[in-house]
Hints:
Elements: E1 7-12, H1 19-31, E2 35-40, H2 42-46, H3 54-65, H4 73-76, E3 87-93, H5 95-103, H6 109-118, E4 124-130, H7 138-145, E5 150-152, E6 155-156, E7 167-169, H8 174-182
Parallel strand pairs: 1-2, 1-3, 3-4, 4-5
Antiparallel strand pairs: 4-7, 6-7
Helix pairs in contact: 1-3, 5-7
Amino acid sequence: MKLTGKRIGFAVTGSYCTLDQATVEMKRLVEAGAEIQPILSEMVLTRDSKYGPAKKWIKAFQELTARPIISSIVQAEPIGPGKLLDLLIIAPCTGNTIAKLANGIIDETVIMATKAHLRNDKPVLIAIATNDGLGLNAKNLGILLNTKNIYFVPFGQDNPSEKRNSLVARFDLLCESAEYALESKQIQPILIEYRGI
């Protein structure tokens, strides 16, 4: 892999049902030699869910990376002027986060980290996980698909018969997608058949 020594911010937002998959991919990045900086949204930091209490996820991400978590807008802002990262990954990336990115609403940690990183003309890789990707958020997804320095992990409809607007990234393609993004390339194809992992 071409990830050894790369400084990668790994931002996690509140798609709780995919946090296990995000944890697996974070571990793969660490094993590939990347230096991972965890960044957690307020939802992940403070909300318990049926997938586990917030403290479970905080502990998991800290242990995997052996780094303190960026957990506030104030802590995230120096990513830009300090040129701290080669790549920022948002995995999972909720529809709410996509909407804020597409519309320039900088009101929480992950969005500030992304804005700060993008000012350095560096890549952002998104692993989408939203029930609304083909609904009201389709327009926001379209904006980001055409935004400079934003790349996507391939995604598809995870349950078209019951949740026809839902889109989820193939998390197992995250490391390969990261290699492409670091070369300013979008892995292809973006739209694929989703297979549960």
